[in-house]
Write a structure and sequence with these properties.
Helix content of chain A: over 70%
Distance between the termini of chain A: 11 Å
Number of helices of chain A: 6
Keywords (chain B): Membrane, Transmembrane, Transmembrane helix
Largest interface: A-B, 34 and 31 residues
InterPro entries (chain B): CheY-like_superfamily (IPR011006), Sig_transdc_resp-reg_receiver (IPR001789), ST_Response_Regulator (IPR052048)
Mean pLDDT of chain A: 94
CATH topology of chain B: Rossmann fold
Number of helices of chain B: 6
Number of domains of chain B: 1
Low-confidence stretches of chain A: none
Strand order of the largest sheet of chain B: 2-1-3-4-5
Strand content of chain B: 15-25%
Largest sheet of chain A: none
Number of domains of chain A: 1
Oligomer: heterodimer
Radius of gyration of chain B: 15 Å
GO biological process, one term (chain B): phosphorelay signal transduction system
CATH architecture of chain B: 3-Layer(aba) Sandwich
Organism (chain B): Vitis rotundifolia (Muscadine grape)
Helix content of chain B: 40-55%
Low-confidence stretches of chain B: 8-29
Distance between the termini of chain B: 48 Å
CATH superfamily of chain A: HPT domain
CATH topology of chain A: Four Helix Bundle (Hemerythrin (Met), subunit A)
Number of strands of chain A: 0
Pfam families (chain B): Response_reg (PF00072)
Number of strands of chain B: 5
Shape of chain A: elongated
Order of helices and strands of chain B: HEHEHEHEHEH
């Protein structure tokens, strides 16, 4: 049982390390992972799905804002800042960096630039999402072994 | 696979701006206390978790109005962490109004995308320090030391 748990932990760490090497996650994710020690063993398994839901909501809001004429660049910037906040807080490094590009395009009121930048953010998110799903699945299996 | 949820049990408390420890907004005087003012759910949860991992009893509200109402009700905090982007009343204006109430708690302004002008606006409004998200124990270290030594 302990050997299985260790194997699962190693598998999870391997995924995280690979994502860090690719620049998709940074050390903030390690901090988030470590918070389960002081918070709840279910912390990571719960916050990642919440993060994904949060991102999807903000991406929808960004898309809808860009679809309207005229574009409300003030709202666009606020959604962008919100997205950068939650992505940087979870450690989703490339997503957070992509938000900087969107903000710059929004400041310049460059609609085409905003669309390109938003597509870039979506691309980073879709790349990260399946790995995050794997992390959650592994974390849940680890929790079942611990129970 | 359904797992018991500690985060979700705290959700209602978070949204009501009351401590999940169940004392209805009254904070124990034996620990450092903090108020997180942030409208983003993930930032709320993570900032609260980071502060609590440092031994700080933390409440969360999602807007400047909720922060002002809580403070006006008599709740006191050693530290107020306030995001720049908030619904209706932004973090800068909320800070101004908190200081206008005579509240002298340590205030930390946070934002994800900081330009110099935004940092200055936050400082001018009355925050003691300004940091760029994400919040980390390292970024909190000097503030925590100051509060513990006070």
């Amino acid at each position: 049982m302990a050997a299985n748990r260790q194997a699962l932990n190693e598998q999870l760490q391997k995924i995280v390390d690979s994502l860090k090497e690719q620049g998709m996650l940074d050390k903030q994710f390690g901090l988030v992972h470590s918070l389960k020690e002081s918070n709840s063993p279910f912390f990571l398994a719960e916050i990642i799905p919440m993060f994904c839901q949060n991102v999807q909501t903000i991406l929808r809001d960004l898309t809808q804002t860009l679809d309207k004429e005229p574009v409300n660049y003030y709202d666009l910037e606020e959604y962008c800042i919100k997205l950068k906040g939650c992505t940087s807080s979870i450690g989703a490094r490339r997503m957070a960096l992509a938000c900087v590009t969107l903000r710059q395009a929004s400041e310049n009121k460059n609609k085409d630039g905003c669309i390109l930048a938003l597509n870039g953010i979506k691309h980073e998110y879709y790349n990260l999402q399946s790995s995050l799903d794997s992390i959650v699945q592994l974390e849940r299996r680890i929790l079942c072994h611990n129970a | 696979m359904e797992l018991p949820s500690k985060i979700n049990n705290n959700e209602k408390s978070l949204q009501q701006g009351i401590s999940p420890s169940g004392n209805g907004g009254l904070i124990s005087n034996s620990k450092l206390t903090a108020l997180v003012v942030d409208s983003d759910r993930i930032c709320q949860i993570l900032e609260k978790a980071i502060l609590e991992s440092q031994g700080v009893e933390t409440q969360v509200v999602g807007s400047g109005r909720d922060a002002l109402d809580l403070l006006a009700s008599g709740a006191t905090f050693n530290l107020i962490i306030i995001a720049m982007v908030l619904p209706i009343m932004n973090g800068v204006e909320t800070t101004r109004q908190i200081r206008a109430m005579g509240i002298r708690s340590k205030m930390l302004g946070v934002t994800a995308c900081s330009y110099e002008r935004e940092k200055q606006a936050f400082l001018d409004a009355g925050v003691d320090e300004f940091i760029e998200k994400p919040l980390t124990p390292q970024k909190l270290a000097s503030i925590m030391r100051e509060m513990r030594n006070a």
